Amino acid sequence: EPAARRRLQTELALATALGEEQEKLIRRIEKVAGMSYRQAKRVAQTERTRVQSQARWQAGEDAKAAGVSVYNTWSTRMVNSRETHISLDGQQRMQGDAFVTSAGNALRYPGDPAAPAREVINCHCVLVPDVLAPGQTLGG
Predict the structure, then answer these.
(1) Residue 99 and residue 139: Cα distance in Å, rounded?
(2) Integer Cα distance of 124 and 66 in angstroms
């Protein structure tokens, strides 16, 4: 339902603007969406990963547009991560190039909303951006 989605987006934006901790965000989601604590926790984690990764990726796009050579490293932090994400751990890509999972799904960053839900729901991975020195190439 569009109204419920808008309310949830508003609450997520408010929690982000206020810098609220994860527990408060979970409680907001529970209340607005009528979800169980466990469901709300999964939504909070999924959105946190998406927002953080998307912001890093966008900053990389902005830097790239300004002529800076940016690359990203995929970091899989959890022991119980998806096999498709474990296979990406430590891989590096130039800004704008997608990470391709062992299942063949292309992700610009962890939580990429263009990827299938099975690749993003409850993801704990991190996009780690870095800058190449002038004349330096990725892997060298």
Answers:
(1) 16
(2) 30
Distances (CA, A) of 128 to 18, 31, 38, 39: 24, 33, 28, 27
Rounded to 5°, angle at Cα 88 from 45 and 124: 10
- Which stretches of 20-125 are DSSP H helices? 22-33, 37-65, 83-86, 117-120
Residues 85, 40: Cα–Cα separation, whole Å:
23
Instruction: Give the whole-angstrom CA distance, residue 135 versus residue 82.
Output: 36
Strands ordered across the beta sheet of 70-75? 92-94, 70-75, 126-131
Decide the pairing of beta strands 106-107 and 126-131. unpaired
Express as a percent the part of the chain with pLDDT over 70.
Answer: 99
Q: Indicate the pTM of the whole model.
A: 0.83
What is the token pair recorded at 19?
A: 């810098």
**pLDDT tens digits, 55-74:** 999 999 999 999 999 999 99
Which pLDDT tens digit goes with each residue over 32-49?
Answer: 888 999 999 999 889 889
Alpha-carbon span 132 to 24, nearest angstrom: 38
